[in-house]
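Bit of a strange request maybe. I'm writing a small parser for structure token strings and I need a real example to test against, not something I typed by hand. Could someone generate the tokens for this chain?
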Amino acid sequence: MKQDPADSAGAPPKVTRRGVLKAGAGAALAALAGPAAARAADAATLDRPTLARWRAWAEALVPGAAAAGAAEYLAAQLALPRHENTLFLRYMDWPVSHAAFYRDGLAAVDALARRRHGRGFSALDADARRSLVDAVASGQAEGWAGPPAGLFYFVTKADAADLVFGTRAGIERLGLDYRAHVEPPVRWPGETAATGRLRG
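Reply from user aminoacidic:
Good idea to test on real output. This should exercise your parser:
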């Protein structure tokens, strides 16, 4: 009996051995290429406008981050191998480029600022910045096109807090004694190199 086209239209696609093998090979190649591509992307430093956005965003999250060297800190950490940097994203099993995580998240913050206020995040006053931070933190950032908004907020706030309070100066501002087992030669890994690149 001839099959009714209406019956075949909704039928699941035929699964073949060839199709399964091709799909498996593609997934394996992607898994092998992914980490190497991500490491290569991380080695590229963020441009100055993106670092300026990061400085403003980090300051809105944790006051004092800009003065503590937010731009230099992020540039330094992204230039290091993942197993050596101190970014919180390192512990979140983010599978692709760390640099892209910050670049795309900050671009989404800037786009949100422009939709709501007609100008970029760095140009907003303190109240408008806080409003946008709250929107991202609560998942109410309409039209968000970056990494998951909640994750971006969580990771970047942890980074800013670590920068502000994780150094000798930060610990002492809290009224605590800084008691390192080994005195670090710089405030964070890669500090000297990053500062030189950004001033050059």
